[in-house]
Amino acid sequence: MGAIFTPGLTVTEHHIVQKDRRLPIEGDVDVEVGDVVEADQVVARTSLPGKVFPANVANQLGIDPGRLKAYMTKDVGDSVVKDEILAETPGFMGMFKSEAKAIVTGTIESISTVTGMVILQAAPIPVEVDAYINGRVVEVIPGEGCVVQAPAMMVQGIFGLGGEVKGEIANIEGGAHEVLDPAHLKADHAGKIVVGGAYITLKGLKRAVELGVAGIVTGGFDYDDIKELLGYEVGVAITGGEDLGLTLIVTEGFGHIDMAPATFKLLQSKEGRRASINGATQIRAGVIRPEVVITHDDEEASAEKFVPPEPTGISVGDTVRGIRAPWFGKIGTVKSLPVDLMAMESETKVRVLEVAFADGHDAILPRANVESIER
Amino acid sequence: MSIDPSTIRSVLATDCGSTTTKAVLFELTDDGWRQTYRGEAPTTVEAPFEDVTRGVLNAAMEVQELSGRTLVDGDQIKTPDQGDRDGVDLYISTSSAGGGLQLVVGGVVRSMTAESAMRAALGAGAIVMDTFATNDKRKPHEQIERIRQLRPDMILLAGGINGGTVKHVVAIAEMIAAARPRTRLGGGFNLPIIYGGNSAVRPQIEERLKDLSDLSMVENVRPIMEEENLGPARDKIHDLFMEHVMAQAPGYDKLMDWADVPIMPTPAAVGMIIQTIAKQRNINVVGVDIGGATTDVFSVFDDAFNRTVSANLGMSYSISNVLAEAGLESILRWVPFPIDEKGLRNRIGNKMIRPTTIPETLEELQVEQAIAREALRLAFIQHKEFAVALRGVQKERTIADAFRQSGSGETLVKMLKLDLIVGSGGVLSHAPRRVQSMRMMIDSFAPEGITDIAVDSIFMTPHLGVFSSVHAEAATTVFEKDCLIYLGSCISPAGEINEDKPVMRVQMKLPGGGSMDETLGFGELRLIEASREDELKGTFTPLQKQLDLGAGPGKPVQQVVRGGVCGIALDTRGRPGVQVPMDERRVPTLTRWVEEMGEYP
Q1: Fewer CB atoms inside 10 Å of the end CB: C or N, chain A?
Q2: What is the CATH superfamily name and number for domain B101-248?
Q3: CB contact under 8 A, B45 and A289
């Protein structure tokens, strides 16, 4: 057996990035195939239906729901302003009249003669979708959005919080093992994507929010701190909608873990470049990993560089990194891929590989506990 | 296409889980049908592969290497069997990858028609995201906002018995219409809504929902108060499960093409096997399948089958949710060594984000098994709350019933009537020592009285479930010979224990001719070596008048008990939940139990 297949994250200077830019509901698409778009440019727009406010008007009037329409002064689709009369009964000799007023400004969505309910819908909420990255529109999905494509540097993280933001890359001083705390963060980091080190402290993260930092990309942080930040625990890794004031991407995992050398080196080389990042993570159906994307300007000149590599397995001689204790974060070279199952210290029998670690010693570890890097 | 079972000699079956793809080989040998080899590989829905069939081929390759039978031909499973161990006659598969089918259900009264709708959804293998009812204590605008946020794969709407309420059913439909719900996947298609309520309301439902959804009608899930009719709704949900989940995960179109019979949702296949055991042996059974994302619990009590899925209790994708729901202290009470709490949280978080990793060290294994106990315990609590007699049914009640607060809505899961617990899923089937599985199940299910405990040997109940749909006889043979492994029985008194007094007297014949007569105090866990073939006559006496071993409070039980690959466990650690001291006695107490059971090296 020459190779094994193991999941890994994309970390590459040359990647063809395609981004689906879709509206949450049907709307208008502002671009055409072939258009060159900027990251901040709006490519599609729509209006989300406003909030809905049901009111039992039949009850308010004290009538049978079946007779409701006879007393309505407004019909489905009509606009109303707050406190405007929706329905009224004539009363008796001009007395004992009852009326129902609109509780919000909006339009009448429905009138039910079964339940007596009138549903009002508040004004629509406009929604715009931008291009997210600089690139070219390669597909238009009518009424929904488009696909923007660009050659780009692509770094996938392992976990993130918060949605799409854009900003200049600002590297902090120190190596891949640096701990990012408030002292590293300065006023001129406002609006930027700060990249650094192995770990960010909770205080560091809070300071970054205070300063208006757009995003943080780092090796790790503590799982405990999520609850501190959000007020709740993230029980299943489906994120992206958090409102914590910035977008956080961890490239390695929870705890102090040096950023992988390839990731660190690549991001360091992008100081001052404008990046689009997204913390959205979904480790279930249709896996989504957080990402840092920096598009290249030399689209035509270097197209051949961007042919996506065929996914391959891990082979003898490849560089791998441990992704579980006791080898978490350690980097080594694959020495052999034995076929037979072997018992680990836990007595779990698994398929294994032999790795020569950078610190000089060899180890046998489960194949499932490594990931391929620097391919 | 119908398949003639007599022509089948070899079958490759896979189960594509959310974490791991498991392949097993069934072969017709000189000893009849047997499960012969197995292999597994990480499920490959993630980049760079994003194709579930890659994981299937990797798992099949592993079986090929071990068995010497050619199974993979290029990028295909090789069928049919060419003879000389070249190819297989049949390729079949189950699947739970893809995040499951996510449903919203609605009904008029939460504990009646809405609950029937929920039972139909769960029985079909779905995850219920939320249940709406006219009495669910939310205001209509809150319900509407919630439906807008949820983005389910589909909605099942019930409500009203036939000839019953119209107004309340219409109110729920109007609420759904106002929310204009959209599908999880977006795109240009309408959200499927199944209506299975009062049949007289169909025209009004159609008027309100037809234009904004893909509406279908099925028979009422609760046609009369005393009866449920879940089959038609389940079948419809199942059709949509196939269309949606299968189409959603990358590579499924190819997998569906390879499989010789339709791919079955894993929970449906496991449920089929659990019901078969209960029926064949005329016993009450609880089955559990603990996976990476979800934990399914099945029960059959007096022929009533129930299934629940705890959507966010699992050992990888959902592992952090076990921590969130159980709390760190609940997990720590099963960890038999001191541990740094922050480090433990990070470990659990890292398993969530790298779900396919395996515990290499003993400590990592012990932590995972501690979490598994809590996932199982919580899933079982949810199951007991759900598996209840139909509510709303009028019954004659005696004064004694009124005092006991029993009657409709009471759980069907009676621990003292439970005969067998069957565990399945990676953490139970692949525990390095079988006794680890036995203890995990005793700790989390806390069986009462005398209960047999078994485990799916290598996690093949899903494979056998789908195999039984093609060749029932062969599947039953393999199930008896190779799948079900009896671990032993557990004897434990129900009721609150007075810790200062003796708890249980055990007088029992022992294998090899000896006998025992011992009195156990509170907090003991003992393992008596005995195999499944040993039929040991014993008298088990609760020594406190409130304790019950199955014959009534304080009364002795005379019964023949059998062991298994582990033996007979005597457990006086407390019921309904095992009591673990959380002070400085925690580690020594856990260590004593671990050593008594011989759990770890």
Answers
A1: N
A2: Cobalamin-binding domain (3.40.50.280)
A3: no
